[in-house]
Predict the 3D structure of the following.
Amino acid sequence: MNQIEPIDGNGFGHLTVLLHEAAASLNLVPGSIAIDCTLGGGGHTRLLLNAVGKNGKVFAFDRDSTAIDHAQKTFAAEVASGQLLLVHKPFSEMADHVRKAGLAAAISGVLADLGVSSPQLDIGERGFSFLKDGPLDMRMDPSRPGTAADLVNTAEEAELARIFRDFGEEPMARHFAKMICRQRATEPFTTTLQLASYLEKHSPYGSKSRKHPATKIFQAIRIAVNEELDELNRFLAGAVPLLAPKGRLSVITFHSLEDRAVKHFFAEASGKTKRQELSRRVVLTESEMDKMVNAQGRVVATSEAEPSAEEIEINPRARSARLRVFERA
Ligand SMILES: C[S@@+](CC[C@H](N)C(=O)[O-])C[C@H]1O[C@@H](n2cnc3c(N)ncnc32)[C@H](O)[C@@H]1O
């Protein structure tokens, strides 16, 4: 299980995080149907295909057409045989799509490996990185409107401050919002390095800060541009009813906002939240409690919820990853 792919095996440029751990957490059997909601370079998809076998099926979603185009080539045989169905859609629309295919409550495993792929970060033209020059874009799906530049140059100062605070957990959110609004009145922001160097120049943290001052602001803008937390909440709510009994939903998160949302959702869906609330107010037997709580499933404890030190050394982007697993009753 601790086997790590030393290099990206499929030429996409993305090292899959928790590759074997996440795929194994779904407990898939041959002939079953699984969904990979975040295809990326297809590392997890490949293992899901292996697990469901020739008589099974995998749906793979991505809102980035470059991931879909890449998979059309790398998985040409599986696509041709109908074993793999590629879907260019945001995962918030996954449940609708699968229901329309007549497969509600028939899915054995759903996986989401959140966040961005390495090519999205590494290719300057995508506009995600404050270390590479490119247009200030950050859209995972460039066919949709609303770039990072549109947001930075047009949002009200209070809205920018809210975004920096809520999505970047930036304590100096109001300061950075004010600085940006002052500057854009004379010169709009159009490139990543223009914004990054402006934030650095006007950072109240000085040169003592270990992190680049653009780190949290870029994260916040990216989350806002791609509506990542809305996407996640809609995805989670839609995923559970798709699962067959004992079907599993596994999610890999990369920062505390995502992780909190998943943890909170699993606590609600497993009845933990309601159980705690009820036990504060009334005394009930276990079976009375079970009836009142009416849980949709349980949280699965996993000993491989975080990447090993070895994986982090090979792939530093794995360091903040965390796997959470839910099983349908
Ligand atoms: C971390 S990468 C996934 C890597 C993949 N597991 C692999 O093994 O290569 C995340 C991928 O999810 C996609 N993505 C992120 N949010 C999405 C959303 N809301 N809907 C659909 N795809 C999304 C990104 O475009 C990106 O390709």
